[in-house]
Design brief:
Number of helices of chain A: 10
CATH class of chain B: Alpha Beta
Shape of chain B: globular
Largest interface: A-B, 30 and 35 residues
Distance between the termini of chain B: 21 Å
Order of helices and strands of chain A: EEHEHEHEHHEEEHEHEHEHH
CATH superfamily of chain A: Aldolase class I
Strand content of chain A: 15-25%
Largest sheet of chain B: 9 strands, mixed
Structural class of chain B: alpha/beta
Helix content of chain A: 25-40%
Order of helices and strands of chain B: EHEHEHHEHEEEEEEEEEH
Oligomer: heterodimer
Strand content of chain B: 25-35%
CATH superfamily of chain B: Class I glutamine amidotransferase (GATase) domain
Strand order of the largest sheet of chain B: 2-1-3-4-13-12-11-8-9
Radius of gyration of chain A: 17 Å
Strand order of the largest sheet of chain A: 1-3-4-5-6-9-10-11
Helix content of chain B: 25-40%
C-alpha cells in the first residue's frame, strides 16, 4: 500500500455554468457545477479541477460563487484555474474553498507570481499549468518540447523541461502538464513530453490532454511517469465512468483508491 | 440546547471546508469558527486544524493567545486535531530549523527525506494513502481498515509512547498518521477532504461520548 495515483475530472466553467456537457444518467441540470461536482465526487474522483473559461470581465466573480457552492457540498480536493493574475486572485479563491489554484499564462508573463504565491500560501496549493508541444529538431538531436500560451497558438521559445524545473524551484507544488499537440485529439498523452517533465522534477506531475480511452490514462502513469491523470471529455460525454477508469488503472497494476 | 463545536481559528489557513464538512455531517450542531477563547472554553467539542509551517502556527497561537485554551481543551473535552493541529501538539518540530511546540504529547516531528532509490516518492506526501488502524477507537466506527484518506504534508509525528498510535501509513517509511488517547484524536490527513470515509470520521467525532 502506498500513495494512490490520482484520477481528476476537469470541468470547464463559463460564467458560473459547466459547459462542454456532462452526461450522467438522470442528471437534472448538467450545467450546474455543484451537481456535476457531486456526481464526480460520489463516483470516486480523487480531486476535481475547475477551469474558468469566462471571457467577459463582468462575469469573472461567478467562479467565486461556484467554488463556495461546491466546497460546501463536495468533500474532496478542489483545484481552480483560469484567469489567475495576482496573489489577490489566489487569496479569493482559497478563501472561497479552493484547495489549490492553477496558474497558467501568468506564470509565463510573471514567473515571480509563482514564488510570491507559494511563499504566501504554501507550495501545496500552487499548481503551475504548462501547455507544451513537441517541436521539430534537426535529425540526430534530442527531442525538444516548447511552451505555448493562448490555447496553444502562441509559441514562447521556452523549453518545457527547463521551464518545469524553474517552476518547481520557484515554489510550484505540482505541475499540470497539458500535451497541447494532443489536446482534443483523443490519441493519448504526448508520452515523451510527460516522461521528460516527470523525470526532471521532484514535484507531482498531472498529465492532461489527448485522452481518448482508458488505456491512455494508464499509459500516462506507467509510461509517462505522471502522478495523476486529468481528463474531461471521456467522462463528460458518458463514454467511460470514473469507476471504469479506476478499475482499468488497477488492472494495469496502478495503485488507486477504489 | 444544540451542541457546539468550536473550530479553532488562529489564522492558519482556510477553515471553511472543515466547518462545512462538520455542518454537513451534524446539521443540528452549532459549528463555530472562532478565535474567541471564551467560545472555545464554552464549546462541547473542539476541532484544532491548521496548515502551513510549524513556526507560523506557534507564532499565531501565541498572537491569538490561544495557547492555554487549546491546552486546556486537550485535557478535558472531545478534541480533534487535523494536520498541523496534530503536529503542534508535540514537543518539538524539525521544521523551520527547529520549533518548540505545545508539548502536550511526548515526542517530536520529523521531515520526510528524499530517497534517491525511490524517485517516485515525492515530497510533500500529497494525495490519497491508506491508514492502518493500529488501535480500535470509536472514531474508526464504520470505516474499513486501510481506507484511503487525503494527505498533504512534508513532516510527520513520532510519539515517544507507542500507546498514542491509533493509525499508521506507509510513505518512504511507516509513520504515525493518527494519535489517540482519552479525549484526544488527531489525524495527519484531512478528513474534510477525504470523501465518504472522512465524513464518517467527522460524524463519529460529533457523536463521540467520552467514557
Amino acid at each position: 500500500m502506498t500513495l494512490a495515483k490520482r484520477l481528476i475530472p476537469c470541468l470547464d466553467v463559463d460564467a458560473g455554468r459547466v459547459v462542454k456537457g456532462v452526461n450522467f444518467v438522470d442528471i437534472v441540470d448538467a450545467g450546474d457545477p455543484v451537481e456535476a461536482a457531486r456526481r464526480y465526487g460520489d463516483a470516486g474522483a480523487d480531486e476535481l479541477t475547475f477551469l474558468d473559461i469566462t471571457a467577459s470581465n463582468d462575469n469573472r466573480d461567478t467562479i467565486i460563487d461556484v467554488v463556495e457552492a461546491v466546497a460546501a457540498e463536495v468533500f474532496i480536493p478542489l483545484t481552480v484555474g483560469g484567469g489567475i493574475r495576482s496573489v489577490a486572485d489566489i487569496r479569493r479563491l482559497l478563501n472561497a474553498g479552493a484547495d489549490k489554484v492553477g496558474i497558467n499564462t501568468a506564470a509565463v508573463t510573471n514567473p515571480q507570481l509563482v514564488k510570491e504565491a507559494s511563499e504566501h500560501f504554501g507550495n501545496q496549493c500552487i499548481v503551475v499549468a504548462i501547455d507544451a508541444k513537441s517541436v521539430d529538431t534537426p535529425e540526430g538531436e534530442p527531442q525538444r518540447f516548447e511552451i505555448f500560451t493562448h490555447g496553444g497558438r502562441k509559441p514562447t521559445g521556452l523549453d518545457a523541461v527547463a521551464w518545469a524545473v524553474k517552476m518547481a524551484e520557484l515554489g510550484a507544488g505540482e505541475l499540470l502538464l497539458t500535451s497541447m499537440d494532443r489536446d482534443g485529439t483523443k490519441i493519448g498523452f504526448n508520452l515523451p513530453l510527460t516522461r521528460a517533465v516527470a523525470s526532471a522534477v521532484d514535484i507531482p506531475v498531472i498529465a492532461s490532454g489527448g485522452v481518448g480511452n482508458l488505456q491512455h490514462l494508464c499509459d500516462g502513469i506507467t509510461e509517462g511517469g505522471a502522478d495523476a491523470v486529468l481528463a474531461a471529455s471521456i467522462f463528460h460525454f458518458g463514454e467511460y465512468t470514473i469507476g471504469e477508469a479506476k478499475s482499468a488503472m488497477r488492472d494495469a497494476g496502478i495503485e488507486v483508491r477504489l | 440546547m444544540a451542541e457546539t463545536i468550536a473550530v479553532v481559528d488562529y489564522g492558519m489557513g482556510n477553515l471553511r471546508s472543515v466547518a462545512k464538512a462538520l455542518s454537513h455531517v451534524a446539521p443540528k450542531t452549532n459549528v463555530q469558527v472562532t478565535s474567541d477563547a471564551n467560545k472555545i472554553v464554552a464549546a462541547d467539542r473542539i476541532v484544532f486544524p491548521g496548515q502551513g509551517a510549524a513556526r507560523d502556527c506557534m507564532k499565531h497561537l501565541k498572537h491569538y493567545e490561544l495557547h492555554d485554551v487549546v491546552s486546556e481543551a486537550f485535557r478535558n473535552k472531545p478534541f480533534l486535531g487535523i494536520c498541523m493541529g496534530l503536529q503542534v501538539l508535540f514537543e518539538h518540530s524539525a521544521e523551520n530549523a527547529g520549533v518548540e511546540c505545545l508539548g502536550l504529547v511526548k515526542g517530536s516531528v520529523s521531515g520526510f527525506k528524499r530517497d534517491l532509490n525511490k524517485p517516485d516518492y515525492k515530497i510533500p506526501h500529497m494525495g490519497w494513502n491508506t491508514v492502518q488502524q493500529t488501535a480500535s477507537h470509536p472514531l474508526w466506527h464504520n470505516i474499513a481498515d486501510n481506507a484511503h484518506f487525503y494527505f498533504v504534508h512534508s513532516y510527520y509525528v513520532c510519539p515517544e509512547d507507542q500507546h498514542w498510535i491509533a493509525g499508521s501509513t506507509e510513505y518512504l517509511n511507516t509513520f504515525t498518521s493518527v494519535v489517540a488517547r482519552d479525549n484526544v484524536f488527531a489525524t495527519q490527513f484531512h478528513p474534510e477532504k477525504s470523501s465518504d470515509d472522512g465524513l464518517q470520521l467527522l460524524h463519529n467525532f460529533t457523536q463521540w461520548k467520552l467514557t
